[in-house]
Amino acid sequence: MKDYPTHPDLYMDPVDAAEILGIATSTLRTWARTGRLEGVVDWFPSPTNGWRYYRAGDVYDLAEERGKTT
Question: Which residues are in the Helix-turn-helix domain (predicted)?
Answer without folding.
Answer: 11-54
